[in-house]
């Protein structure tokens, strides 16, 4: 005669973990421009923020240790992170990094409405981090499109597909830097869309605009060549912050701070205003310098 074994405490924990994973997999964040300078940093920060202590634990942990780690894991542990770009591949310099394997890399033309709608379908948050510097050899309309439409079209696709959270990496444009009119126009277009069209308190949609000035970090160029922008930008930030006042809004902000702010806006349901939230450069510097929670 076979007797049914009574469920043990470990069985109960296992069932709870399975239920939690099933529920949390309903959360999906799509990052447009996920292979770029800022977008890849956001994708990496998302993987760090959504990998539970249990997943990070080594195979040598005891069952007691694993249970304690499980207790610390929250509902965002199994978030589906989708990185969308023209190539559909991670940046070559990062292919061997562990965080790359945690994300899904998909090919999507940000100017193609149908592709964008398919890419964002089922997402709980969409991040747009596409942009291009206003190099003098580029035409003005190309600069506007690269910084405007390539973010507006994915954002509108998200709105039409019922996504409730949109995070846009915008920019604070220093008034004393010449030659940025086309760049500023493109950024203004996506900011206006997020504020005036996507954000809707009555429909439960929230839009977040991050307004960094220059972003300090290590930019990877073609062939994996590292360009340490922080060597110049970090001392500049220290000087401008020491001067105080409005100059802080023009101080370079660390790349990691921008990424942390994007993660909080995408995942923290309690963060931000109902409707539209602007995260200033000063806030990015002063409020997002800690570790990702």
What's this, in brief?
By secondary structure, this protein is of the alpha/beta class.
| Rg computed from alpha carbons, rounded to a whole number of angstroms | 21 Å
Derived structural class: alpha/beta
Extended strand count = 11
The number of distinct helices, counting runs of at least 4 residues, comes to 12
Helix and strand element order:
HEHHHEHEHEHHEHEEEEHEHEH
The major sheet is characterized as: 7 strands, parallel
Approximate strand percentage = 15-25%
Shape: globular
**Integer average pLDDT:** 82
Spatial strand sequence of the major β-sheet:
3-2-1-4-5-6-11
How much helicity do the residues have? 40-55%
Give the distance, in angstroms, between the N- and C-terminal Cα atoms.
51 Å
Uncertain spans: 14-25, 53-76
Structural features, described:
The protein has 293 residues and is an alpha/beta fold. 44% of the residues lie in helices and 15% in strands. The protein has helices at 9-24, 37-49, 53-56, 63-72, 98-102, 113-120, 140-147, 149-160, 181-198, 230-243, 255-267, 281-287; strands spanning 28-32, 80-85, 103-107, 125-128, 165-169, 206-210, 215-216, 218-220, 226-228, 253-254, 276-279.
Features:
293 residues; alpha/beta; 11 strands
